[in-house]
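Hi X.,

You mentioned you wanted examples for the new student's onboarding notes, showing what a folding record looks like when two proteins sit in one file. Here is a clean example. The first protein comes first, with its sequence line followed by its structure tokens.
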Amino acid sequence: MKRILVAAVILGALSASAMAIELPAEIAKRGSIKVALVPNYPPMEFRDPAANTLSGFDIDLGEALGRKLGVKIEWTETSFAEFMPSISTGRVDAILSGFTDYASRHEIASFVDYLRSGPKFFVQQSRASEFKDMAALCGKKVGASRRTMFPAEIDKWSQKNCGSNPIQFVGTDGSADARTQLRQGRIDAAVQGNETLPYLMDIEPGAYAPVGDPFATQFTGIALPVKEKALQQGMVEALDALIADGTYRALLAKWKLNDNGIEKATINAGQ
């Protein structure tokens, strides 16, 4: 009888870890979700230089969601430019890669939002005294990834605050290139999501200084095909379960993202 009771407890625990969520038939049959990422945006996703393995908040979150859903996560490395085509053609089932939820993307993808973020200016620590406030950025060269919405947000802020002395925007090939140009003195300041800046300042102590507060509010989400309503609902339920059992908060703390957490999963859906 004791062995039966122990077996029942173990079976119950296993059942609780994989939730009874109805997934699309193809995913259920395959037993996995194909997830696209570009591992170059620490601490969201990157390759551990020592082990050459995928690491970061999104990796940990994705694996935890897979356990809740009872499926394996198949990570598929691609380019940023291929994110939306990969979703629209069915090459992947999801994008989980520090991907911002913009209304302009809703025609192709619906988003399950899981982080609150925003663009933030930063400069080299050695020049911090030149930039005591955000107004000091007017007329300066500011770099950010041209593949994001940061250029538009920078322009919007500049038009509102700089008048006849606008920021001179410099497009870069990603956030790493922006930091390289900043160190080389080719730009005066850079912009990066406030979900990544604390981590970078921690691993490169004394290198950077933030300027002001985030100048826009954005949400980072899991991009899913618009028509896959069951997968969208499954992701919401799995994320809410991770929030409820404390896993989500533990991951935020691990990757220094406590200020970016949400209280409940939401879907921003396309038509």
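Then the second protein repeats the pattern, sequence line and then tokens:
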Amino acid sequence: MTDDDGRALLRAHAFRDSSRRSFLIGSAAAAVVTTDLVVTRVIQSQREQTRILPLDDDAARARFPNDRWVLFPGYKTSWEEGLWILNALRPVLAKRAQLAVMGYSNRGLDINNIVATMNRYVENFRLEKLYFYGHSFGGMVAVEVAARLRDRGIPVELILLDSSPSSRYDVRDQRMFDGVVLLYEAGVRVPISVRGTYELGERIVHKNERTWSQIVDQTLEQLSPLAPSSELIQSESSYIYHFDVTRFRLSLGDTKVVFAGNPADGVVDYATARAGWARELPDNVVSVDRVTEGALPAHASPQWNPGIYQGILSAVQREYIPVPSGGGSRRIT
């Protein structure tokens, strides 16, 4: 056997080993992606219906049987985190109403479904007063739901916008955002494993807003079986992308709108968002001057900074949701 023959055999052997490794790696990767897609389907099936989740408070139930604060969660916020946020605000919000969270369906964000769910909720509990808390992009949803409920004769008295963008142009990371929307509208769904990698990277990029503990916790939340589905997250992106606040300029009646945010926000541009809401809803916006100074993360984080947010909400409630006077000596703030 010549030297050339020997080298050819060695190359063939190396190719065989390389091909086997490539096959095994490719098979493993395919198995991971397949498993990931199966898990995604399981997550979606667990929470296919839009639901309103109560946060029980016996004292609030006794005092406010027909009044509700409803939280509309932000982008990528799970049902559990929505309840966590609401619980962080409970000491203040429960002084005006009972509390509940709008749980979006894992089949995707469907405003018609959300409005219908809210309408049934109002009828079932014979609600008389509604207050909406719009957490991040949830502020957009809260505004549209309030406008559409009013068409049905159900007024919302107050909407608190917590770092809510007024349009897609207020979102700082436009390239990522546009990419997510493009994939969604092309029918491509992002696997959980890919989402997890992005979530970790995005939070490390904004490390100045978070502790390492928050980075780990928030990343793991998105990999949890309880996390929102990719379908829901991408549909939320599409909703933000196409949201047009001008449609609701004449649809909110006497609803008061308060914007609170943080100039250090790295997710939503504080300056353009507060200006956008004030400009587009001039008959409803009563304040854009509430600042969550000192909060970390700076973007819509009452669950991490309850003291800061409770102080703001106490002031907002005192000014815009006064408690009826008379009947007792105890003063409620």
